[in-house]
């Protein structure tokens, strides 16, 4: 070539040859893929459109990651939209829950809750601190729970070691309880000095004997730990009612297997229900037994679908005497979260908390048990508005799971069951856990809990009451199909034809 030095000519020639060679290799690979795609029988698109059909799978996978950054609107995604996630991230960073310009929340969808503000809200010096609320007045060691907002059950196994440790430390700093979930109690749970609610799942991990039944000895050992304040018997969880806990095989490490008393490397599948609890009578027997052995408040967790059994339970309590009542009832929403669950159950089974909470409260009120059985609500109650709604609807406490996962850095990548969580929250891969720095994240957990409480208080004051637990249904209005809102008190959550057997006189 004219004017070009020899070395440049040589370089261009080498580059051209390399380019031709690369093209040749690519063509060869494409040919191999073409033959494979054309002859395989499992994928129709690849069989009809060899090679190019493969890009569909690639784009679908990439779309999962990039949609939330480039395409989804602020209020669009599920299970949580960007506005909700960002609110948690900001709160967790200690930046408060204040935003500029105006709300992006659409207020017209049917069922949207709008709080009715008072014309004359209390002045700041009239606002009251929310007091501790006693759970289990008849237990040998009742629990005066300091906070209305707490951490829901998520097992060590579903969560990583640093995640559990950061939650424990954050809970300790914020003065809230942490529920163990069904994977048993570990040194990480106790690390932050927080109050612990020990959950007994259907496989009884942590308090299980060699045959998979209760070990009273282990129960007593757990109950003797001062940090353990209550026991929660898990009947069901909103994400998978009627199905026991699932920990996929790749997440059952040797350590987790030892804690649970199961073989390593095999999926940990809990039974669909406690074999000993087949009806409401068995449930009360079991609760009485656990309370007797542990001396601490005992309640149960369930997702409500059919609710005739709740009426039966109340009648049975009335028959046996009010002391036989569970000390609390955790109601989990049908759209609650999970480490792993069948989509068929997740998408289709169990009432959402917006419906089940007011129904349960109404049933307990009818039977005069509302004050005796404390209500704990869970399921997408992660922002001040939803927490305030639950308190106004009759909850005494809120347990939140995924809000706290966001405070740990979860980006909603939805890989919790695969041991490849990119933020270290739900993986046992040490390399990925490096991203979750316990000292830093525990601060975020505490900031988040404190900000939620502070902003629920702001809503309560705006409604004219001195503290969040004074919020009532009359403070909430729900948007109807015609675009107008009506007070929540106007809705009959238990029409007469759905009521249970005859009402009993109130005894609170
Ligand atoms: C990773 C993960 C693990 C969970 N593990 C348990 C468990 O062991 N026991 C249980 O009762 N619920 C478990 N849950 C459900 C939560 O406790 C909670 O009921 C549900 O997620 C709804 O609350 P949320 O919307 O605030 O997350 C788990 C949820 C998640 C996301
Ligand atoms: S980042 Fe993804 S995989 Fe990790 S906890 Fe969050 S949703 Fe699960």
How are the SSEs ordered, and which strands pair?
Elements: H1 6-39, H2 44-48, H3 54-71, H4 82-92, E1 113-115, E2 133-135, E3 143-145, E4 149-151, H5 161-174, E5 177-179, H6 187-190, E6 195-200, H7 216-223, E7 228-234, E8 246-247, H8 254-260, E9 268-269, H9 280-294, E10 298-303, H10 308-320, E11 328-332, H11 343-348, H12 353-366, E12 374-378, H13 384-393, E13 397-400, H14 402-407, H15 430-433, H16 438-462, E14 476-479, E15 485-487
Parallel strand pairs: 4-13, 5-6, 6-7, 7-10, 10-11, 11-12, 12-13
Antiparallel strand pairs: 1-14, 2-3, 8-9, 14-15
Helix pairs in contact: 4-16, 5-16, 13-16
Residues 405, 410-416, 421-423, 425-426 line the site of iron/sulfur cluster.
**Main beta sheet:** 8 strands, parallel
Tally of individual helices: 16
Question: Which CATH C-level class of the largest domain is it?
Answer: Alpha Beta
According to CATH, what is the topology of the largest domain?
TIM Barrel
Task: Walk me through this protein's architecture.
There is one protein chain. The protein is 38% helix and 12% strand. The chain has 508 residues and is an alpha/beta fold. The protein folds into two domains: 6-75, no CATH class; 146-473, Aldolase class I (TIM Barrel, Alpha-Beta Barrel). The chain has an eight-stranded parallel beta sheet. A three-stranded antiparallel beta sheet has the order 1-14-15. Strand 14 and strand 15 form a beta hairpin. Helix 4 (82-92) crosses helix 16 (438-462), helix 5 (161-174) packs across helix 16 and helix 13 packs across helix 16 (438-462). The radius of gyration is 27 Å and the shape is globular. The chain binds flavin mononucleotide and iron/sulfur cluster. Flavin mononucleotide (FMN) is lined by residues 152-155, 158-159, 181-182, 199, 234, 237-238, 245, 301, 332, 336-339, 378-380, 382, 400-403, 416, 426.
